[in-house]
Amino acid sequence: MRKIILFLVCAFAIQSQAQQRPKLVVGIVVDQMKLEYLYRFSDDYSNRGFKRLMDKGFTFHNMNYNYVPTYTAPGHASIYTGTTPAVHGIIGNDWYVRSTGKNMYCTDDSSVTTLVPGTEKEGAMSPKNLLSTTITDEFQMATNFKGKVIGMSIKDRGAILPAGHFANWAFWCTKSGAFISSSFYGDKMPDWVTQFNSEKNYMKYIDKGWSLLKPVDTYNESIADNNPYEGKLGKTEPPVFPYNLSKIYKESGMEVLKSTPFGNDFLAELAMRAIDKEELGKDNVTDFLAVSFSSTDYVGHNFGPRSMEIQDTYLRLDLTIADFLEYLDAKVGKDNYLVFLTADHAVAENPKYLQDHKYDVTNIPSKETSTSLNKFSMDTYGVNLVLNYSNFNVFLNRELIKEKGLDLAKVKESFKDFLMKQVYVKRVYTQEEILGATGQDYYLNFIFKGYDAKESGDLVIVQGVGYLESIETGTTHGTPNSYDTNVPLLFYGWHVPVGESYKKEYITEIAPTLSKMLKITFPNGTECEVLEELFEKK
Q1: Which of 152, 176, 215, 216 has the smallest CB count inside 10 Å?
Q2: What dihedral do alpha carbons 390, 394, 400, 404 form, nearest 10°?
Q3: How far is CA 469 from CA 92, 254, 396, 464, in A?
């Protein structure tokens, strides 16, 4: 009898503990999403997607990044670690390594191999370069590795970094349209992913082509379809609707799908398949699915934030999210899952578009900064002292400077003085200034939080507001300016109050907030600031 009572007590305790957490947590990152897209396209959204999340969840209208560079890899890492590149180590999508003289890609790992033959280079990836734990790592340890963690994205970095070090799986898409993984996660691809790849579901989108989802007069929030600020989707086709994707597919292969809204639909199919085949959210041990939609970034880079193409992409993503939420309702249960949606960075306006509307900014031609730095060095010192310029960082050849008997500090100041004379440069900081930051300089604060003393450069440049480098058509991102740092954050579902906040918050608060909601340990690099509005009692 005592054994029966003890068993019932333990079972009740386990059930009670399980009820303290949702059955499934779903993290959604929309690559290159401006907060403004929630507002600008609102009249044309359904009531089932973004509006459902906003109306029945909690909206943070003033969520911001607090470091540079605002790129994809640092963004995903910062969301899930609750800290910045200075701590988690992902200081760019790739970065120059002084000791080797080569670039390091954020998820490269030569010690692992692909699980899909023929994708050797694309598959040699892992989270090895990520120095902090993620919310997904802490979640795994909290469940004694009984919960499942799966990350997925078209981009490798969008899948691997959110999934963390202890994930069951991370899946990313190759140039051929197959989702792959590496030996870091297992010895063999799951059968259900192999089956999914064999179906080549992307071809139905290619065959259908890309036409406007709604009547053309719906797109009055965008500029004309045929305009000088957007790039081409194919080699010869003008950037106007409709797009013959079959023709472009013959020219460039499956890569074309990434630069259409249908890359998001393709990924959503895999996400729903994962929920079904991995039985995510089926038992009382919480699971975690990290999904990153990449096509918004590809479309944005190519066509720009004022294009019909980007509007159509978001109208379609709204429906994709709607279908995904309804799938979660059916498979997991409306009250059993927790969703958050945010972005890894926002995006700038096309400088030519701004200039044509009488804003005095311009595009900085490709390689102008590095070329001018090299010329200044030769003119001043008779030798090129610049090793590399990338990610707004200038790397000087310290060995050569020492060999020439030059004072490193004075050399840095000379380069700084030269750069400050360039019309497109707002600020320049030396390594000493960055590491000695006091918190009083607005731009320096961003750089300090994104700076790694071992890996970053001798000087860091802040470009002037509105200036973009190497952009003639489309757009890009990476600066500390609000157009790159202000992103949406929506919480929805399990234990999420209905409401909104306009208080300034930071992206690094998401992971520790999830830690408190799930009652688990903070990621080890976070400053532990949380979004208090989600815990207020009404």
Answers
A1: 215
A2: 150
A3: 16, 28, 21, 11
Nearest to 253 by CA among 191, 202, 208, 299: 202
**For position 538, what pLDDT does the model report?**
58
CA distance 148 to 140: 8
Using CA atoms, how far apart are residues 333 and 472, in angstroms rounded to an integer? 47
Check if 70 is active-site.
Answer: no
- Own/partner pairs, 18-22, CB within 8 angstroms, 24+ separation: 18/284, 18/285, 18/286, 20/519, 21/286, 21/518, 21/519, 22/281, 22/286, 22/336, 22/337, 22/338, 22/493, 22/494, 22/495
Closest CA to 514 of 493, 537, 538, 483: 493
SS3 letters across 95-132: EEECCCCEEEECCECCCCCECCCCCHHHHCECCCCCCC
Which is the catalytic residue, given 72, 174, 260, 296? 72
> Comparing C-alpha atoms, which of 442, 325, 283 is closest to residue 47?
325
- 3-class state of residue 30 by DSSP: strand
Under a CB-based contact definition with an 8 Å cutoff, are residues 518 and 25 in contact? yes
**Kind and range of the H or E element at 300?**
helix 295-303
> Mean of the pLDDT values across residues 265-282?
98
Closest CA to 469 of 374, 384, 361: 361
* CA gap 302, 8 in Å, rounded: 60
Query: What is the C-alpha to C-alpha distance for residues 224 and 243, in angstroms, rounded to an integer?
Result: 16
Single-letter amino acid code for the residue at 209: G
pTM: 0.95
Nearest Cα to Cα of residue 324 among 493, 488, 481: 493
Question: What residue ranges in 464-512 does DSSP mark as E strands?
Answer: 468-469, 486-493, 499-501, 505-506
Cα angle, residue 39 at apex, residues 82 and 347 outer, rounded to 5°: 55
427 phi and psi angles, rounded to 5 deg: -145, 155
Which contacts of 106-112 are long-range, i.e. CB under 8 A and separated by 24 or more positions?
106/73, 106/157, 106/161, 107/73, 107/156, 107/157, 107/160, 107/161, 109/182, 109/184, 112/182, 112/183, 112/184
pLDDT-derived band at 16, boundaries 50, 70, 90: very low
Q: State the Cα–Cα distance between residues 388 and 446, nearest whole angstrom.
A: 21
pLDDT reading at 293 higher than 60: yes
Structure tokens at 413: 């100041």
CA–CA separation, 370 and 244 (whole Å): 39
In tens, the pLDDT along 88-116 reads 999 999 999 999 999 999 999 999 999 99
Determine if residue 465 is left, alpha or beta; phi over 0 gives left, psi from -120 to 50 gives alpha, anything else beta: beta
Task: Determine the Cα–Cα distance for residues 433 and 451; give it in Å rounded to an integer.
Answer: 12
Phi-psi region of 279 (alpha: psi -120 to 50; beta: other; left: phi over 0): left
Alpha carbon distance 429, 421 (integer Å): 14
d(CA 29, CA 290): 8
